[in-house]
Amino acid sequence: MTWTGKLCRIDLSSRTVLTEDIPRQVLIDYIGGKGLGVYLLRKEMDPMTDPLAEESAFVIATGPAQGVLPIAGRYCIVAKSPHTGIFIDSHVGGFLGPELKFAGFDAVIITGRADKPVSICIMDGDVKIEDASDLWGKTTLDTEDELKARLGDRTRVLTIGPAAENGVSYASTTSDYYRTAARGGVGLILASKQIKAICVRGTDVPKIPAAVKALRREITERAKESKLNGHLLPVQGTSWLVEVASARDQLPTENYNKGEWGRASEIGGDAIENKYRGKIHPKPCYRCPLACSFVIETEWEKRRVQHPEYESLALLGSNLGISDLDELLRLNHMCNELGLDTISTGSTISWFMECGRRGTIPEEFRGEKVDFGDAAGVRELIEKIARSKGVGRVLAEGVRRAAEVFGGGSERWAVHVRGLELPAWDPRGKLGLGLSYITSNVGGSHLRGWPSTSDFPDRSALDVVDSLIEQQDLKVLKDSLIMCHFTHSIRPPLNIEDTARIFEVLTGIPTTATEMRERAQRIWTACRQFNVDIWGETPPREGDTLPHRLLREPLPSGKAKGLTSFVSDSDMESCLDVFYKKRGCDPEGRPLL
Questions:
Q1: Of 33, 203, 476, 534, which one has the fewest beta carbons inside 10 Å?
Q2: What CATH number is given for 235-414 in this structure?
Q3: Taking the domains of the chain in order of start, what are their residue ranges?
Q4: What are the average pLDDT values for consecutive 10-residue runs of the chain, which has 593 residues?
Q5: pTM of the prediction?
C-alpha cells in the first residue's frame, strides 16, 4: 500500500463528506506528506484567506512509507499558520498516521466551520461528524480518555485543549496522549472550526511485498547498528542533547542571553535517567526500532507523564532558569494537557521575564512579573496563557505581537523569525544555522535542514550553502515520504540516495537521486510561493533575517564567546544572494516560476 490514492474532503459548514481520487501524477510529483499537503493547500485555499476564517483549509497527510517501513510512524499537518500568518507544516509521531492510511486515505482536507463543537470519526473509510459539546473545555488527555472509552481503546485520537479553545495563537494538537503538532498554532485552526477531536481507526493493513520486506530489514538493521554503537537516542530520547548544546554554546539560557549553562547537567539525559530510574518506560512510535520516546511515573500525576524532549528541557529549563527536574516534568505536562507549544511558551515567558528585569512591563501587568528560576510563577503564567487571563492574553500571541504591545524596545530581545519563536539551538554556536532559520518556509525552525558542519560561525557561511540546501532537500523528502527526522541517527544515516531507492521500491517507479532532488525543489518552491503570494509586493528578502539579539549581541562566554550568527551583515546578504540563485529565486527571494 504505497498510496491509497484517496482524499477525504470534509466541509463542516455543509456537513458533507466526500471521497475523491488523487491524480497519480500529483502523488508522483509531490510524493505525500508535506509535498501532498502543500499541493492541496495551494489548490484549495487562497493564500490571503485568514487562517481562522471559515474558508481556510486544514490538511492531514500521510506518506508512501507510512505503515510499511520502520521509523515512519508520523503524519503531517499543513495549513496557513494563525501564529505567523504564513505556511506551516507540523509533524507528529505515534500511531495516528499509519492508522489513517489503514483507514483508506492519503490525506484529509477540512474546510468550513461547525455550528457547535464536533468530533470527526474516520472508521475504515466511513466518516461521521459527531457532537462533541460535552468535551469542550476538557484537557487533551481527558478528551482522549473519554473518546477511547466510547470508541474503543484501539482508536487513535487527535485532540485540542483549552489553549486552542481560548485563542492561544501557538496552540497545539495532541494525539496518542503526548504526540504534539506543536508549531504554528495548528490547534487554534481546529478550535476555530469547532473541532475538538479527530478519531481514526483502520484495519486495511497492507501485505508487504518481498522487496519492501528486504528494505524494511535493512533499515531496521541500520537502526540496531546505531544502538550497538552506543547512540543515546534509544536510551534517553533527545534529552542527552542538553549538555551537548551547552558545550557548544547553543543552549538558550535566560532568553538567549547566553549559550551555555552551569546547571545543564542537572536537567540532561543522565540526570533524568538517574532520578527516575525504574520509573521510565518506552513508548515508541508505530513499528519503530529506534524507540526514542518514553513516559515516566511520578508521585504527583496518576498517568505516566511524557519524558521531556530536548527542546522542552531547554526552553522551559535553562531558558527560564529552572533546574528542578520534577518542576520541568510538571511544566511540560501542563503544556501537553492544555495544548501548548513548549517552544513558543518557553520563549515567550523568557521574553516576559527579561522585560521584568529591564523594567519594560506595562503598568497594568507589573503585578504579574515573574523572575528567572521561579517555577511556581511559570506554572501560573502557563495557566494564564492557556486561559487567556491577565498578562496571559498578551503572551498568548507570542513574542512578536507581545513586543508590539509592550514596546519599550522589547523587540530587541524578542527571539523569533517571521513570528515563529526559535528552537533551542542558538545559531551563534553553529556555522550556517542562522541561514537555515531565515530561509525556512515556516519561520524559525530546527527541523527544516541544517548544514552538515560542527564548526562555529567564525567565518563566512558561504562555505556551507550547498550543504544547507542538500539537507533542506533531504528533510523535505523525509517529510513527504513520512520518514522520521531521526533516520539521521541510524548507521549509516539516511541520505538522498536512500530516498530514491525507497521511493522506487515502494512505488515501482524507476527513480534517481537527481529526480528526488527535483521533487524536493518542487515542494520547497511551492511552500515558498504560498508565502510570496501572501507577502504581495513586499520583497521576501526583507523578512529573511534574524532577530536583533542573534545578529547584534555576541555570546558573552563559552567556546563561541564573541560570535554572532554571521561574521557580518554583508556575509548574511552574500549568503542570501547565493542561496536564492541556487534555489531558483530572483535577488529578492521570489521563485522564478
A1: 203
A2: 1.10.569.10
A3: 6-201, 235-414, 430-582
A4: 92 98 98 98 98 98 96 96 98 97 97 98 96 98 98 97 98 97 98 98 92 96 88 95 98 98 98 98 95 96 96 98 98 98 98 98 98 98 98 98 98 98 98 98 95 97 98 98 96 97 97 98 98 97 98 97 98 98 98 90
A5: 0.97
